[in-house]
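TICKET #2291
ISSUE: user wants both folds in one file
ATTACHMENT 1:
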Amino acid sequence: DALRAIDVGSGNGVPGLVMAIACPEWNVTLLESNGKKAEFLKRAAELVGAENVGVLQGRAEVAARDPERRDAFDLVVARALAILPTTLELCLPFLRPGGWFLAHKGHDCSKEVEVSRHALEELNGELVRSEAYPLEPTSLIHTALWIRKTGLTPDAYPRRDGMPKKRPLWKERGGGKGLAPADE
């Protein structure tokens, strides 16, 4: 079967639409909550001839509860979605056990990784690799976090609309101290 991938919070289509173009044998879903952005993604996929792309307008908290999407994807990607514990709660429910989540984060995401331990444990994820990379042609450095799904997502997650951002899993145990509001 073809690899199934989903880009959560696809925005302008990076990296999801780019993956679909580069890997035409993959089935790629672009999930975007904003209606105008979702329409843009549909049109962009059509213009570049990416027949392996499906665009889904909706919130991750709702889409991840659909039995056809829950624990169903081989690869999940997200870029600039939210602070890591929130991103994990929104993305890991889509991922099948044994699948991979690639989170693109900023230069120094060590605080986010530290406060994500509870979320990783709770959602059955394991950080396998963290790799810094240059963002060409700028001098900016970003970080790729490779997270493997170790088991099924508990039924309690994701929580209802807005709760993953309002009360990240690290806040559930009093963690996250030292993160500035800009980090969220």
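ATTACHMENT 2:
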Amino acid sequence: MSSGPYLVTERLILRPTSAEDFDGWAAFHADAETMRFLGGTQSRAESWRSLCTMAGAWTIRGYAMFSLIRRDTGEWIGRIGPWYPDGWPAHEVGWGVRREYAGQGYALEAARASMDYAFDVLGCDKVIHIIDPDNSASIALAERLGSVNQGPTQMPPPFDTFRVDAYGQSKAEWTARRPAQS
């Protein structure tokens, strides 16, 4: 079991990554369509290391992406939340949902809670989302959150050759629009 903050939304629990997430995490990272814009597929061994990286970020930074858990089934369905590894262009709220749960509003529900967490708890002044220009689904989600394309950005190695844009907004922009979100 994980320790740390738990965010509860209508259909989800967002909590720190833990060992019990590994089978879902590995399946997520093995799916070529899911990983198309997230750095490519990973073997089970590589997935273990990436899970440990996320769990380690919780220890080192005190935050990282949350594991998304369906409240009704307890199933791990993705990862969403604040992310700021060394060399990253800015504080990010990133996302990834298992393919069978895409298009059902889970990412939007969790991203909203994560944006609130980044601004209200972590004290971020600005949040970005790093998105491949061909990833229309992620662009649509960023825009639904109220983020706008701020132009090309660059991630650190080994992702420095990826073509990506930064979508983002300030805390003031998020706060001004928050009550009217649908």
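RESOLUTION: both attachments delivered.
EXTRA DETAIL ON ATTACHMENT 2: The chain has a mean pLDDT of 91.
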